[in-house]
Amino acid sequence: MDSFELFDYGIGDPDITKGDGIYSRYLTTVTTAGHYWLTISANDNNGSAKVLYGGNSKSMPKNPNHHQYCCGSYISEYGAAPTEKFMRQVNYGSFFVTNDKVNKDIYPPNRIVDFRVMQVDQQSKQVLLVWTSPGDDYDKGQATSYFIKYFDKRGDVFNRFNEDVGKIVDIWNINGPPLVPEIYGTEQKVLVDLHNSHQDKIFYFGIQGVDKAGNRGTVSNIVAVFFSSKPVSPTVSHSISLNSTVSSSTQDPATDKKLKMNKGGLSTGNITLIVSLIVLLLIIILVLLVFLCKRKSKNKKLRSQSSNKPSKIKKDAVDNVDSGYGFEEEGCVKETLLSPVNPSPADVVV
């Protein structure tokens, strides 16, 4: 009798969603033809098993990095309750194997389906790639090496990956220690340096796991990276290292909630800019108020001086004509000019 453990990792191949209670695994240990029976055993896993309630949105798969419910998605444990201690066993059924297994390794590593880009440095033309390691025989053991390539055309990743097309990421493109596969289910990352790419262009990356017999897994999902030819200011660019923090796609709901709050809020730079603009506006308003107050005070002072000064009245010949048809000014009598507006009697004219 042979036994093996089932996983609810949610990596994507073979398990789709973490925490949904569906456990998956490849069966690779059958080597001879015959009739086989499957028996499944389940227990509370030392009190860590939980029950999910309902089918509402709170118990649906959650994932901040993926839109589809696959390959890194997980079920939130919101409202979940611990189970009682239990032990169950079910006879699943039987199957036939018609031929003995050939005496060679025929199982390749499982497909990597959570291949993703975590960071891109436009100044140094470096990209940080992350994925979950495959096994040697599908999801069992660990692969021997990786085969990473990038292409100019998206379609070539799937259709021509094993042809002499595209460019291989070798040791000269890796910034850091040599890339060595870990045991199945381990998160791995590599910093790829493409410093010769000085043009506006999109590169499409793919990866395969390779086992010790040379079997290659199915090509992973495709990731795209854009490199700009425009120079990037060093103050804007951030250098990338393998020690950079990589957020897990299976983070807990509390962290997911904080992530969403940070995305929806303002950054420190934006808050500083807004506060600076408000302070500047208040200073301008204060200066205008001081200027207006000083101008009002000056006008009031001028009006006060004008009201205290004796007024000098000009005397006009037309308005100030005396009975002798002249007017006095400082003890003198001056003639009044004749005009149509100021006519004189006939005896004066004669």
Explain this structure:
Residues 234-238, 245-264 and 311-342 have low confidence and may be disordered. It is elongated and about 125 Å long. It has helices at 155-159, 253-264, 268-308, 346-349, and strands at residues 34-43, 50-51, 61-62, 74-75, 81-82, 87-97, 116-121, 126-132, 145-151, 167-168, 187-193, 201-210, 223-227, 326-329, 332-335. The chain is 18% helix and 23% strand. With 350 residues, the chain is of the alpha+beta class. The N and C termini lie far apart (158 Å). It is built from four helices and 15 strands. Among the domains are: 1-103, no CATH class; 116-232, Immunoglobulin-like (Sandwich), CATH 2.60.40. A four-stranded antiparallel sheet has the order 10-9-12-13. A three-stranded antiparallel sheet has the order 7-8-11, with no helix packed on it. A two-stranded antiparallel sheet has the order 1-6.
Break the fold down into its secondary structure elements and pairings.
Elements: E1 34-43, E2 50-51, E3 61-62, E4 74-75, E5 81-82, E6 87-97, E7 116-121, E8 126-132, E9 145-151, H1 155-159, E10 167-168, E11 187-193, E12 201-210, E13 223-227, H2 253-264, H3 268-308, E14 326-329, E15 332-335, H4 346-349
Antiparallel strand pairs: 1-6, 2-5, 3-4, 7-8, 8-11, 9-10, 9-12, 12-13, 14-15
Keywords: Membrane, Transmembrane, Transmembrane helix
Biased composition (Low complexity): 237-249
Region (Disordered): 233-257
